[in-house]
Write a structure and sequence with these properties.
Four copies of one chain form a homotetramer. Chain A folds into two domains: 124 residues, NAD(P)-binding Rossmann-like Domain (Rossmann fold), CATH 3.40.50; 165 residues, Dihydrodipicolinate Reductase, domain 2. In chain A, strands 8-9-7-10-13-12-11 form a seven-stranded mixed beta sheet. The first copy, chain A, is α/β, with parallel strands linked by helices and 347 residues long. Chain A contains eleven helices and 13 strands. The interface between A and B is large, with 50 and 50 residues.
Chain lengths: 347, 347, 347, 347
Amino acid sequence: MIKAGIVGATGYTGSELLRLLALHPEVEISVVTSRTEKGRPVAAMFPHVRGHIDLAFTDPSVKELAVCDVIFFATPHGVAQSMMAEFIDSGLKTIDLSGDFRLNDVDIWEHWYDQKHACPELIEQAVYGLPEINREKIKEAKLIACPGCFPTVIQLGFLPLLEKKLIDTRRMIADAKTGTSGGGRAAKVGMLLSECSDSFKAYGVSGHRHLPEMQQILSEAGNADIGLTFVPHLVPMIRGIEATLYFELKEDAGLSLADVQAIYEQRYENEPFVDVMPSGSLPETRSVKGSNMCRIAVHQQPGSQMIIVTAVIDNLVKGSSGQAIQNMNIMFGLDELLGLEQVALMP
Amino acid sequence: MIKAGIVGATGYTGSELLRLLALHPEVEISVVTSRTEKGRPVAAMFPHVRGHIDLAFTDPSVKELAVCDVIFFATPHGVAQSMMAEFIDSGLKTIDLSGDFRLNDVDIWEHWYDQKHACPELIEQAVYGLPEINREKIKEAKLIACPGCFPTVIQLGFLPLLEKKLIDTRRMIADAKTGTSGGGRAAKVGMLLSECSDSFKAYGVSGHRHLPEMQQILSEAGNADIGLTFVPHLVPMIRGIEATLYFELKEDAGLSLADVQAIYEQRYENEPFVDVMPSGSLPETRSVKGSNMCRIAVHQQPGSQMIIVTAVIDNLVKGSSGQAIQNMNIMFGLDELLGLEQVALMP
Amino acid sequence: MIKAGIVGATGYTGSELLRLLALHPEVEISVVTSRTEKGRPVAAMFPHVRGHIDLAFTDPSVKELAVCDVIFFATPHGVAQSMMAEFIDSGLKTIDLSGDFRLNDVDIWEHWYDQKHACPELIEQAVYGLPEINREKIKEAKLIACPGCFPTVIQLGFLPLLEKKLIDTRRMIADAKTGTSGGGRAAKVGMLLSECSDSFKAYGVSGHRHLPEMQQILSEAGNADIGLTFVPHLVPMIRGIEATLYFELKEDAGLSLADVQAIYEQRYENEPFVDVMPSGSLPETRSVKGSNMCRIAVHQQPGSQMIIVTAVIDNLVKGSSGQAIQNMNIMFGLDELLGLEQVALMP
Amino acid sequence: MIKAGIVGATGYTGSELLRLLALHPEVEISVVTSRTEKGRPVAAMFPHVRGHIDLAFTDPSVKELAVCDVIFFATPHGVAQSMMAEFIDSGLKTIDLSGDFRLNDVDIWEHWYDQKHACPELIEQAVYGLPEINREKIKEAKLIACPGCFPTVIQLGFLPLLEKKLIDTRRMIADAKTGTSGGGRAAKVGMLLSECSDSFKAYGVSGHRHLPEMQQILSEAGNADIGLTFVPHLVPMIRGIEATLYFELKEDAGLSLADVQAIYEQRYENEPFVDVMPSGSLPETRSVKGSNMCRIAVHQQPGSQMIIVTAVIDNLVKGSSGQAIQNMNIMFGLDELLGLEQVALMP
């Protein structure tokens, strides 16, 4: 059994790791840390794991966590980078769900996160944990930087045509919509049910931290400058992200919608967690609720050159904790589906 | 007092007319029709109007409705066109909330609505009831074709720059999101709370009836061909539409975001129901819930030429019944705000 | 015009006073206070009142507020009692929406609110602002203690039979359900949409502050000891309270359900804001959303002696701010309906 | 592998059987029937099972279903009784999720369901499938009548004290609240998101079909007449039932709350799917969302003799499809937890 430690397990990505790992046949949750809840039984805080998890929160320390084979950081940005070096030195495998190691360029990181990076020397070692592009590197990695939730679904939506250099990369638009769990478990007035239920809005319109992450990954994948406009919106639901992508093919691409469909199907035919639906399908977020699946459909409107891609994930599963476990499975040579075979909860 | 009749008052636009007209100081609701509910007291069906409305539903007939000064059609498409000629002949003022008379071109109408138009000869008389562009014509109109809910907010979002020919009209994108009341009060599995709550999806991606309406109005306003991509989405909320618009300025436009903001403010400074918020604001649908207001904000992302406009309305008020009453106020020479001064219900 | 001041207008009862008073034909909002938001325009915080209210928040002080004719306290408990004496001395009429002056017995207040009462000498002057029992006293009052939201609807549900001494008062049960706005606008994890949406729970099962308030009022109304069990529940909706009341008639009461219905109708026939629906009706909270109405229905199950009463209000209107304005109207000799004639927002 | 057939798999209990059985290690879904969807791939209707279930709907017929070892009826009442005899004759094990075989007394059944029972001769053979009272009988059963969703949670809440004859059975109250999936997947106006979201109401106040079922089971369990009042309510959420139970102990019971807690813990200590939480806990429906667990807590208010029990289940799992599988596991001598170990989806 793989012994897993979770640093910062009181937030949503942490509790989702608990839910998923509790039933993973090859993993034993050994240490669960929280500074604020130290000593409290996990099941007292999260009644849904009563009967499944019989641990108490402990202080996060390398000593405590040294019994583990793998450490998940389910912490706000800034935390993993402050602790990571010691873990890496101890030879532990580490998977960071925060934004600390996603960006190659420290200056860009420091600009968007508005703080000094505590551990720039490890950035180069970090492997961006999107298995659909980095599976081989993940196998050898010591430090995984899990993708952001928006970048996961948006990148999966752009990749097939982008990798083939068929997209006009000057104008790519990603209009994304997320449930409130994307905002975390912190008490904020704007995330109260009274404030965001029965309403809808755009936010982060003038700039969001996931934008430079996507620019980096997409420009590598397309070997081109990326003119990406990204607007996130807040949906009155708990889980799920839907992204509607708008772009044009290069003028000489000469592809029909059926060609586009074929390219998407081919790109993902061996991917266990990307489901290319028939062209014109309308993916709903509930079709992936609680599951690690990304569902994608491609569309075109009559008389228009625009390609429209609609894609959905569960932000807490494929968008974070499920994808983290998918990375772990790859790192340890396990079947990539282990612990991740849930059927979505619908209705 | 103006005597008003409502044809088809059992749906959401009909019941919203009831709510608003019940307190309009210059209107008396005289006749409320429904074939299926004939004889039933309105307040038995709609308990929220108990104490406000003391009528029973009657059969829709010109004879019955002839006592009225104005007739609202809150009916599915196809109904108003089958009854309209008689009403017009009787000299009544009519306001159609359905799509029957919005499109100038009968062929386009018949293509998108997939049926024969029953009264093409009246299309020319119909005035498109968007007061922000047609106020003078509305004053003289006998037949108002109220705009669709999506076209109302999307057009208000594009107009200021489009009218000044500053937009690159080849690539205009409207990513719109609506509450479920936009789907009407008919029993459909897909609109059950169990089916669409806690979920999100795009629909109508390959084409929606509001697209030709917008192409017509926007091409007139901009005196140009319009390359518009429009994707509606379903939000798990009752009321409200948010539209996020993406477009580029013409290369020689030479406008800063502040210039854009000024153009929007100037365009709508005398409009009682369009509120241009400070640049960078994030309009929420709840800020207009139950009110006739449209709130708009303009944005730009660092390093990008794209102009982003976010705009919200209540689909049942400014998107239909409230706008219908705004048209009525104009037709009868009343203060345009009468009966429409509600403050949005927030939280 | 009556000049009104609102102390603590950043919460939900405060913003609801803004919404309602903005359109009250005899009231001018003169002062709006908030220590934390001092200097900020009200409309910057609450975009739904843009165009309706053109004030900025000021510090709460007797000097500032002395221009007013009436002061509303929309503050957490403990605040009104600390400021009230000065206002009363200045001859101002005051309406407290908090729990500070609802209980006659200081010891009971201090037990349930777990703090020392700062102004016990004014308790006797306070009039409990439930117009349906205290209209005459309200006319002369200087200090109104507005009822709690749960007590308003539960008391209205019990009063008709209780006042006639027809209820077995040893076993009265009130199973109540509230929307989240009852919990206020403070940032609390448990009130996040992610935490309380798509879920349901009882809370305060072992005791809630509204219990002693109801025991006091109901025992006065019934001139008897009251054996009341009260359990509140949290509903994933914004506004509304539904209460289901269970009780038996006294053995010698000899009343049919029709008799009970008649007693309810008679009791409230002159009450503008209590609507007794036909027996067996199923009041929904949305039928009063945004309105000051309380709707009530009585029921009985076959073979059972139990009387079941179901009743609904909007917790922010009849349950607090609307009722406060109803009190103000009575205090100033105005038509009791002024500013309170809204039709509920449905759907 | 056990071959399972599902009759009527287009509703919510049917699709929930699909979700749960798809991952059951000892079951293979062999036949899935629907008259209306005959020939359509299951995954085309239910995209959440794409990749998990590769069957098409077929017509329901004994011939088709004869390959199965067990048949689940996920049909409206009236269907199972019309087909059951043939299946029983063929020696198949059958599990009926509808109300057809729950009531012992045909007259009572015909009164409440308002139709003639088509197969009264099989009622005696039917075993009421609440494992917590009937585990031994279930092992030998040919025909399981799965309990209703409300009866499941309400009965589990009453049983421990009732079986010990400690309850005053003259006055038992069950105030229950359900999510909308309890109303099924049929298109009904009242279940539209626009109609029941952001609202709350009681329904069935004058009588509900689950009342006679509970009277039968509880009077057997307590060997006494049961004076039960049951009021269901509709909550704007998809899954979950919360029941708040009110009752008094017999005068000579002489039990403290701690005694009551001990009796509940003892009663369910070996039950894998009943979790007695610490006294005073507040069970939330989300703590069992998607899982087969029932969570229960007991309470008392100061100065009151009333015992209050709060209990939650997922109506589609422990309230129907999960419990059906629990019955199947028992019938086939499998580990009772197989296929039912899901951790609830929270948040």
